[in-house]
Amino acid sequence: ESSQEVDDEVKSAEVTDVSGETDTNADAAWLGEGGKILVVDDDSANRDLLSRRLDRHKYENVAVESGEEALTLLETERFDLVLLDLMMPGISGLETLERLKADRRLRNIPVIMLTAADSVDSMVQCVLKGAEDYIFKPFNPVLLRARIGACLEKVRLRQQLTYRLKIFISSPGDVIPERRVAKQVIGQLNEEFMGRVFLVPVLWEEEPLLASSTFQAQIDPPNETDIYVGILWSRIGSPLPESILRPDGTRYDSGTAFEFEDAMNAYKEKGRPEILLYRKLGAPSLPLDDREQVMDRLDQIDLLDRYVNKWFIGEDGSYVGAFHNFETDEQLEVMLETHLRKLVDKQLLEDEK
């Protein structure tokens, strides 16, 4: 875009600022406030200007200069909205939009197109290709903010009205990176299924757990969720207090055991939650000079092996239940995304009948 257009926009922004646009109380009350936005524009002055305005209104944002760079970034990062320039060298804004809408995971991310005032026909084409809205350059700062806010608010309203599935993530403390993988996969699937279903991860670390009660008493139990995902490696987990017992009065082997058995008993009674179990292969790295730590981990591995054998291997050595082995986080991500997608599709079909 021309430097004159940028200058005009700066002047417009300055006038708006004088009228009170930067009032922080107004910021807090604005519809659609907050979110992560990707800015795609080959003009560095426009990128800087948009980033400053988004920063001012508390939007997290990333700016890139081409459609190619945007598509690459969207493969690994999640965004709530894309501001996409129409006229760019290389992959044009329209082609970038078409590729976004053709991607199963990315097609539901809303896109606002940015263009010069003489591109009405092109804007109509973009809307027909799936753009949520458009803004003409030079940007009117009030209109820009209003369009972004309205777009994000529509997304949030859709999520609130969308059918929800709760996914319980169960794992001991030795698989924290794998818990992050599970959360990332759920975020990716939420983009893919936007408007059809919203997946709600149940993760204890995201809850304001109070010191006055147990972990188990303060999070949604597995029996009240739709899908249970268990991830195991070399620990079965920590013991539970005597106040948490099995129905027959015996103590659970650990918190992880409580979560698995709660999910399994619920599935036998009412058919939910669906249960997925993953076990990481390979030995953990331990400092050999700490004998107590080594012996504790060996005891944990032995307890875990016995527990898995109890539930999944029959007296004759046959498998009476299925679980999935993996070696790397990348393998877990691929498997979990594939499995969850199929389970979500299955539950959507069942609930539509």
From TrEMBL:
Residues 1-26 are annotated as: Disordered. It holds the Pfam family Response_reg. Signal peptide: none annotated. Keywords: DNA-binding, Phosphoprotein, Transcription, Transcription regulation, Two-component regulatory system. Residues 36-152 form the Response regulatory domain. SMART domains: REC (SM00448). One of its GO terms (molecular function) is DNA binding. The keyword Membrane does not apply. Gene3D superfamilies: 3.40.50.2300. One of its GO terms (biological process) is phosphorelay signal transduction system. This is Response regulatory domain-containing protein. It comes from marine metagenome.
